[in-house]
Amino acid sequence: MLRALACGRLGPLWMWKALLLFVAVAFAGQLLGIIFSKSGVRPAAGSIFSSPDGRGPSLGPCRPRTHIMFLKTHKTASSTVLNMLYRFGEERGLRFALPPGYQLGYPLPFSAHRVKGYRGPRAVEFHVMGNHMRFQKAEVEKVMPADTFYFSIVRDPAALAESSFAYYKEVAPAFRKAKSLGDFADDPGKYYDPRARNNHYARNLLWFDFGMDHNANFSAALARRGEAAVRQTFKLVLVSEFFDQSVILLRHALCWPLDAVVSFSLNARQRKPDGDGRAGGVRSGRPPAGAPPDPVLTDGQREKLRRWNALDWHLYRAFNRTFWREAEAFGAARMEREVALLRSRREALAAACLRNSGEPVEAHRIRDKTIRPFQSGPAKILGYELRPGLDNGTAAACLRMIRPEIQYKDALDAKQFPRPQSPRAPPGRRSPVPASDGSFFKRDPSGTREKGRRPGGRTGEEGPLDRDGGRSMSRNRNDSAARTRTREAV
């Protein structure tokens, strides 16, 4: 055959060279397609996710950051931010520093061995860390690479207290004893015992999450030291009340496309229910900046809560000022344009992806039980439904945007740590379904996990599931304004 080819009997040599080049290019294209599309089915060519609008304004000469640590503070819209990280990482095949359960040892200080698959300092490359933890820098640095970008988010402690009270009423003894949040705000010391399990939810919760002593007596010197410690590590601190402006700054800091930071509000509680079970409020986004808080507290009671959470209030004011300096450096007109694009894109994706005109709905109204958000306590957590008739790729991309935190973590865990197929149970008998932390769950017909218990009926080492889908501390362990009216006021 080679002789024939050399003699030109099987066609001219240039034809064979062209054929080999075509085969090589086709193979390389297929290989690159596999490498850059690890998340499964891609949206169809005409899908909204294939639109150039998803790239957003130019970011200039930069490379997307893929080593990211997000300190997920409580009740600050942090579940929505975590969804962005989950989506970006899953779509690019990044490795997550996941907990065995749903939180990284919280409320105990973080330890590297809490990360599933950790084998020693820098033995495994982890790209993204973002589940709830009580921050401990030295331990985080054992897990994450040296070039990791650290960021977090804060919220006005008065608004945070309203949300925390709704979620943790039955978990924190200080809240449980009070008849109402107003009752607690009028005299917090009457209900608060610093030694009681889970009372960290009732005082200086941000300070606690950043790894500092939330029961320390306030002093200006202590507050400044804590602020300096946060600044030293965290290169960007978002502000919950200005969520859209915050994620624009985040997008540029991470060099990510616009669609990576477009989000629907997740893990949000119902505020003013409508008669048909839909939630009142802004469609599939964040409340607008300056929106009035729920009419639960008087202005005087909110001020009392800020004084009670004085360390948190100091952090919030400090990083609120920093946020506005960074926003002004970014450019007011530029920020206004990019926020408008972000909101327009959110509306477009909501219209393409969601039922009910993009409005969140009560969990029991969601037909697909596998995407119902976790419910516990008096707060009703809202979710979304996908529109029917989406192509497979678009449906997968939309699902990533609305998948609740617990279910998303489980999905990533299953990808990162695939389990061998177990032998089938005898007919008529179901095997228990092991969770990633070794607990066993009863499964309903839809496949959702309903109840977590270790064999023998005992809960896991971190205690029962809390309202964030994590776990509160076990009983045998103890741990010793919407928008500010003017920038000058904070």
How many helices? The count is 15
Percentage of residues in helical conformation: 25-40%
What radius of gyration results from the CA coordinates?
Answer: 25 Å
Judged by helices, strands and strand pairing, the structural class is alpha/beta
Summarize the main sheet. 4 strands, parallel
- Provide the low-confidence segments as ranges: 27-39, 273-294, 428-490
Distance between the termini: 83 Å
SSE order, as H and E?
HHEHEHEHHHHHEHHHHEEHHEEE
Q: What is the number of strand segments? A: 9
Shape: globular
Which strands sit side by side, in order, in the main sheet?
2-1-3-4
* Mean of all residue-level pLDDT scores: 80
Residue share in β-strands: 5-15%
Q: How would you summarize this macromolecular structure in one to three sentences?
A:
The protein has 490 residues and is an alpha/beta fold. It has 15 helices and nine strands. It starts with a helix and ends in a 37-residue tail after the last strand.
Task: Explain what this protein looks like in three dimensions.
This protein is of the alpha/beta class and 490 residues long. Helices cover 37% and strands 6% of the residues. It is built from 15 helices and 9 strands. The strands form 3 sheets. Strands 2-1-3-4 form a 4-stranded parallel beta sheet, sandwiched between helices. Strand 8 and strand 9 form a beta hairpin. The longest helix has 24 residues. The chain is globular. The C terminus is likely disordered.
